[in-house]
Amino acid sequence: MSDTAASRTPTAVDAIAEEWVSTLVALSPELATYIGADGKLDEYQDYSPMGRERMHAAGREVLAKLEASTPVDDTDRVTIADMSAEIRLELELAEAGWEARDLNVLASPAQGIREIYDLMPTASEEDWETIARKLTRVAGALEGYAETLREGIAKGNTPAVRQVREVLTQVRTNAARDGFFAEFTGGAEVSESLRNELAAAAEQAADAYGRFGDFLENELAAVARTEDPVGRELYSLLSRRFLGATIDLDETYEWGVEELARMVEEQTRVANEILPGASVEEAIAHLEKDESRKLHGREALQRWMQQLSDAAVEELSRTHFDIPDPVRALECMIAPTPGGAIYYTGPTDDFSRPGRMWWSIPEGVDSFDTWRETTTVYHEGVPGHHLQIGQAVYNRAQLNSWRRLLAGTSGHAEGWALYAERLMQELGYLDDPADRLGMLDGQRMRAARVVLDIGVHLGKTHPETGEVWTSEDAYRFMRKNVNMNDGFVRFEVNRYLGWPGQAPSYKVGQRIWERIRDEYKAREGAAFSNKAFHKKALDLGGVGLDTLTSALLG
After folding, report:
1. Under DSSP, is residue 344 helix (H, G, I), strand (E, B) or coil?
2. Strands 342-345 and 367-369
3. For the segment 156-188, what is each residue's pLDDT rounded down to a tens digit?
């Protein structure tokens, strides 16, 4: 995408999209923080049933406007199709009662209410005053969330007890007087009076998490569902939500089994390159003893991430992608709380906060293998999430704010990131067999997740035992297919059990991205250019994968 791209004249459809962004920002101040928009940053979204109904009513109103609108060009047609599909699906999920049971170990309000502070500005006294006021409102946010979960209790629509118990552990950590809130505010360089105000507000926030923990332990855990699977009907909705596409779940399960076998076969070939005659496990054991491929300490990890990321941005911007200057800035960060997740947060609308790659390091972990993580930097950074999301944010000349800042699905984003890993292999960045084995290790895990996630939640037949999947099968299956410690495996499986449909969106999204490119390439023939294809695809911004398919293939 060029810095000199011609500006498109905004349309009536763009106006509807801009109004929807303003509505969402007003209803969810956390969203305003995330995208860097003006808003009531010292407040929280209303997580109560009444607050959620206000969100749904707003969605129905904008949906009616979209349905009555007339597109003037292809950009409008994409906006109408994608916004409408997303809003309709959110309304379907609300009707199915998903919000009343939305509690999981990674991506529910239980985490989000705390995690927003990772993105809030802290440069000035005024920033910290905003934070102090917001901290006093943690209690209200959690109380509204508990009210929604109580509505689920009343209707017999609860999360699984496994999720309640795991989240309770997280909540108790946030409730500690010397936990995140105290540590976060304790480092503020502000006046003494504001420091005291922050300390009191941090204590209120911790106490609020303590009370929420009491609710989980004393009310919700006793009535929570004992079974983990959510069943085909709800799973189908959640799969559509994460992909922005409707897929044949049974065919995808069988494909996942086949894809996993292909990953194992490819890993085995690469293992032989590393150590002739070695199995995958033996090659990994060999690499884990190689001190030249190890990093010791969090600072060493952060420096290595940043150096590798900077080199990728510099080189790819010269050869394979047209990367605007603002998008070239990417910060590699160590997350302030433990847990094990690796994730990306996009830049603000004006790029005053750049895109960031975060590493959440579990307690006690102090050694890292570069061969495992090289592909992770490409996945989270360039040409992965950062290139995809950063360029969408930058494309103000062609896209409305919804398309640039909010649109998209996990399948689009994570599918692109896995596609980007394979692209880096094609471009020669993973010629080192060890780095390639690390990439395949991740790809194998993502294939295993397709099988596990669909298998457990739909009650499919386990490909190895011939019996119906159980949650305990999931732990054994995951341990067999990833080379990670048991704590990581348990967290990951708990995530899949509580966040149905999200984990398969990575590999299924990659499958769809690759299918689109192959069909596009066949149509273009000798005129096909990877660089031109990527530009056209990324210029669309974030969209569901059905929308992506129709926009690129017609």
Report:
1. strand
2. unpaired
3. 999 999 999 999 999 999 999 999 999 999 989
Assign 3-class secondary structure to 15-32: HHHHHHHHHHHHHCHHHH
CB-based contacts of 156, cutoff 8 Å, min separation 6: none
Cβ within 8 Å of residue 40, ≥6 positions away: 26, 29, 32
pTM for this predicted structure: 0.92
Conformation bin of residue 459: beta by default, left when phi > 0, alpha when psi is -120 to 50 = left
The 10s digit of each residue's pLDDT in 109-163 is 999 999 999 999 999 999 999 999 999 999 999 999 999 999 999 999 999 999 9
Return d(Cα 355, Cα 329) in angstroms, integer.
7
CA distances from 337 to 78, 120, 153, 375, 525 (A): 38, 15, 30, 23, 49
E strand or H helix that includes residue 179: none
Is residue 393 packed enough to be buried (19+ CB in 10 Å), middle (13-18) or exposed (0-12)? buried
Rounded to an integer, what distance in angstroms lies between the CA atom of residue 109 and that of residue 209?
A: 12
- The residue among 227, 201, 214 whose CA lies nearest residue 168 is 214
Task: Write out pLDDT tens, residues 289-304.
Answer: 999 999 999 999 999 9
The sheet carrying 342-345 orders its strands as 330-334, 355-359, 342-345
At 394 the three-state DSSP class reads helix
Task: Tell me what the mean pLDDT of segment 313-328 comes to.
Answer: 91
CA-only gyration radius of the chain, Å: 23
Q: Hey, what amino acid is at 18?
A: E
Strands 294-296, 367-369: pairing is: antiparallel
Q: What is the rounded distance in angstroms from the CA atom of residue 135 to the CA atom of residue 113?
A: 10
Nearest C-alpha neighbor of 220 from the set 115, 110, 95: 110
pLDDT tens column, 41-62: 999 999 999 999 999 999 999 9
Q: What is the mean pLDDT of residues 523-552?
A: 94
